[in-house]
Amino acid sequence: MASYESVISVLESELNAVADTFRGLAPDQWQRSTLLVPVNPELPKWTVFELAGHFDIAIGLTRMLIAGHEDAQPARDRTSFFINPRSETGPVVYGYAYTMVEGKTPADMPAVLAETFAKTVAEARAVPPSLVGPGYFAPMRVDEFVASRIVEAVVHGIDLAQALGAPYFATADGIAATAGILDDLLARRTTGSRPAGLSDDLEWILAASGRAPADDNRLPLIG
């Protein structure tokens, strides 16, 4: 397994790419709709603005884990973090994005994200990998939680690129780490391995996350 520092470095590279993309947006691009369909399809899809809000909370949860460190046994890891019923978590996640951008404007968000991302990486580097804190669903080690944030950064970076009609910008290391976690998730939730036609890691991520259609009825694994 990769070292804690290498995991942090991969996350840092992904977050830098995300931050750079948000920083370069034109005013009208913030209002573009993402392709994500809410659990309640009658609700509007996130725009790029709300997606920025989701990035803020999804990555910022790492700081909450570190600040809330406790003497507890970890109950989830980088893979099992994603084993949860979307019907229950989806509406909460959807609403958080709107909460995070309340009172802000698109012009505010590049600086907000840059601060959240920088503090997340710095604070993660300042603690040992064995630190345990609240990992949203259950106690988690910080090294496992940081690894799970790579998935968040890569998958929602795909959402950002798709909303903009732009090329995907995830790094090779970020794609490899995310694909590995999704392979493990498939093994834990179902049987067998990824379809032979999805040997390319990026194509696998797109299908496993529901960002591209797939003929395999085991997919998508995450929403």
Key words describing this protein structure:
two-stranded antiparallel sheet; mainly alpha; 223 residues; Four Helix Bundle (Hemerythrin (Met), subunit A)
- Enter the CATH topology name: Four Helix Bundle (Hemerythrin (Met), subunit A)
CATH class group:
Mainly Alpha
Q: What is the total number of structural domains? A: 1
Query: Could you tell me the radius of gyration in angstroms?
Result: 17 Å
Strand content: under 5%
CATH architecture: Up-down Bundle
Principal-axes shape call: globular
First-last Cα distance: 26 Å
Total of DSSP H or I helical runs spanning 4+ residues: 7
Order of helical and strand elements: HHHHEEHHH
Biggest sheet statistics:
2 strands, antiparallel
Strands of the biggest beta sheet: in what spatial order? 1-2
Query: Which spans of ≥5 residues are poorly predicted at pLDDT below 50?
Result: none
Overall pLDDT score: 96
Could you name the CATH homologous superfamily?
dinb family like domain
Q: Which structural class should the secondary elements be placed in?
A: mainly alpha
Record field, number of beta strands: 2
The helix content is: 40-55%
Characterise this structure:
The chain has a single domain, classed as Four Helix Bundle (Hemerythrin (Met), subunit A). The chain has 7 helices and 2 strands. The radius of gyration is 17 Å and the shape is globular. The chain is mainly alpha-helical and 223 residues long. Helix 1 (4-23) packs parallel to helix 5 (142-164), helix 2 packs parallel to helix 4 (109-125) and helix 6 packs across helix 7 (201-208).
